[in-house]
Specification:
The complex is a heterodimer of chains A (102) and B (408). Chain A has 102 residues and is mainly alpha-helical. Chain A is built from five helices and no strands. The chains are: A mainly alpha (102), B alpha/beta (408). The complex binds flavin-adenine dinucleotide (FAD).
Chain lengths: 102, 408
């Protein structure tokens, strides 16, 4: 593990436990682990949105909250964060796992 | 004269309007309930329509027959809510000014939000069973089905009655087995969830039942589009599922006037305090049932448990007292598993479904997370209990969640 995250606590599924330990450098590092080599401005727009809403509500936003909140279509979101965008962004943004539904 | 206005005369609205009209002084208060429909649907019964077990009369009744004496029932669509003005405008032009407002407009399916879902195949070889029309149209398609790929897809969560798609699959499995064609049918369940259900213990139990019944689960499947010309359902991550007959649970959303009024979330569910059910934006607005954005199941049984709390909180608020009644998110669902058996789950905001007995700890008679015939009778009896409640007859079920006798 890189020095950058040696003091950062993660849970068993790889989500950061304390969102306050996050930094933009950590995000870039975590993105690489998720297979995203470079974070573009579009990636950042989504990550920043998730940080803001996630810290305010205490929960990582759902896929729909992200698309409605950022105006980015689901299709584009999947292109930016392939496979599971809501989970991937939550991980990269240092938030917990997005809650499933009840 | 003051006005207590209820929007939506479904499960929650009917009950709340009646309770209020019983306690509010008729010389001071007018209780009004508005609904765009004249018919009330017993939605849990939609599950049985596609297999011919229930007919129209079992699930459709006039709303008027449930409206309590002393309540004014208005048939019109709600077009606009202006919460800062305490004002509602109906599609027929009527304006109603209110003092207290309860939103109970439920949730509905939106197939038009998924690319291609409403194209050529809709109600040809693609159906829903979350509306009466959908369930009724599906019945002949199921009885004429002689084999092939039978795909059930949940487009996006949350959906009302989150166990209904599983129950539907279990009933379909039993139906095709009895017809002697089960070996010619591939049953596929495509869901955005990582497994059969959200809650771990229940998901494992239900997952095992699916496996035993040879039902394939395509997990973490986010439906992106339907290509009717090729009969293919595709996900955003470009997995394709071919179907011969598809049953879709389209996106569920609350009424659009709620989003426009600024009191709804991204799916038009009203933002409320999850314990008091009061709007977090306006103190004279409450939301009940499927219309509220609480993290509880959208189910009739949940409404039964939350009704009493919301009712008492509203009365306390009217009297200028602090609200002391807290809803715990209690949900109780009978899950049909086919062949006249059912299982039962009981959970709340903080406890997931566990094994045990209900309603009396250890004794039962109902078996939580077990698969029994008596649970199936419980499910069928639910319809009678439901209609009793809709007519204002109280049913003694413990409303708070209890851990007594449960095995963690
Ligand atoms: C297939 C299926 C199976 C189910 N199974 C179960 C089960 O086994 N157990 C269980 O507990 N629950 C079950 N449910 C869920 C249950 O039926 C609902 O949770 C419950 O009916 C919700 O009640 P409600 O009052 O919130 O909304 P509803 O009963 O849906 O009422 C909403 C009302 O608002 C009206 N309305 C909406 N918009 C407007 C508008 N703009 N203007 C005027 N009126 C409007 C509608 O016409 C409707 O009458 C099931 C649901 C389905 C679809």
């Amino acid at each position: 593990m890189s020095d950058l995250v040696k003091d950062v606590a993660f849970n068993a599924e790889g989500y950061m436990i304390d969102a306050k330990q996050w930094s933009r450098e950590i995000a870039e590092f975590l993105a690489k682990l998720e297979g995203i080599e470079v974070l573009t401005p579009d990636h950042w727009k989504i990550i920043d949105f998730c940080r803001t809403t996630g810290l305010a509500s205490g929960k990582a936003p759902t896929l729909r909250q992200i698309t409605v909140g950022t105006g980015i279509s689901t299709k584009d979101l999947f292109a930016l964060f392939p496979k599971g965008p809501a989970k991937k962004v939550a991980k990269i943004a240092g938030l917990g796992k997005p809650e499933g539904c009840v | 004269m003051k006005t207590f206005l209820v929007l939506g005369a479904g499960t929650a609205g009917i009950m709340m309007a009646r309770k209020m009209s019983r306690v509010l002084d008729a010389k001071q208060w007018k209780v009004i309930v508005v609904d765009k429909n004249e018919q009330h649907f017993y939605q849990p019964g939609f599950l049985f329509i596609p297999f011919g077990y229930y007919k129209k009369d079992d699930v459709v009744k006039p709303i008027r027959s449930f409206v309590a004496k002393g309540v004014e029932y208005v048939v019109a669509e709600v077009e606009q809510l202006e919460p800062a003005e305490n004002r509602v405008t109906l599609a027929n032009g009527r304006v109603i000014n209110y003092d207290y407002l309860v939103v109970a407009t439920g949730t509905d399916i939106h197939p038009e939000e998924t690319e291609g879902l409403k194209d050529g195949g809709w109600r040809q070889n693609i159906f829903d069973f979350y509306t009466y029309e959908g369930a009724a149209a599906l019945a002949p398609a199921i009885s004429n089905f002689n084999g092939g790929r039978f795909v059930v897809n949940v487009v996006e969560n949350p959906i009302k009655c989150p166990v209904a798609p599983l129950e539907f699959i279990f009933l379909a499995d039993a139906y095709f087995t009895r017809k002697g064609i089960r070996d010619k049918v591939d049953i596929i369940f495509a869901t955005p969830l990582p497994g059969a259900f959200t809650k771990p213990v229940a998901s494992a139990t239900l997952g095992k039942i699916l496996e035993r019944k040879h039902i394939h689960v395509e997990a973490e499947f986010n439906a992106g589009m339907v290509d009717s010309s090729r009969n293919v359902l595709a996900s955003y991550d470009e997995r394709e599922i071919p179907y011969d007959l598809m049953v879709s649970i389209p996106l569920n959303k609350g009424a659009s006037f709620l989003g426009a009024a600024g009191i709804g979330d991204e799916l038009n569910y009203v933002r409320v305090d999850k314990e008091t059910l009061q709007s977090t934006d306006y103190e004279n607005i409450w939301a009940l049932g499927d219309a509220a954005n609480i993290p509880a199941s959208k189910a009739g049984a949940v409404i039964h448990f939350q009704m009493e709390k919301a009712f008492k909180n509203i009365l306390q608020h009217m009297a200028g007292q602090p609200m002391t009644h807290h809803f715990d998110g209690h949900a109780l669902c009978y899950i049909e598993t086919g062949f006249e058996k059912a299982t039962l789950i009981d959970f709340d905001y903080t406890h997931e479904p566990l094994r045990g007995k209900y309603p009396v700890p250890v004794v039962g008679p109902f078996d939580l997370l077990g698969e029994t015939t008596i649970n199936h009778w419980g499910k069928l009896a639910f319809r009678y209990i439901y209609y009793l409640m809709m007519h204002g007859i109280e049913v003694p079920l413990p409303s708070d969640f209890s851990m007594a006798g449960k095995k963690p």
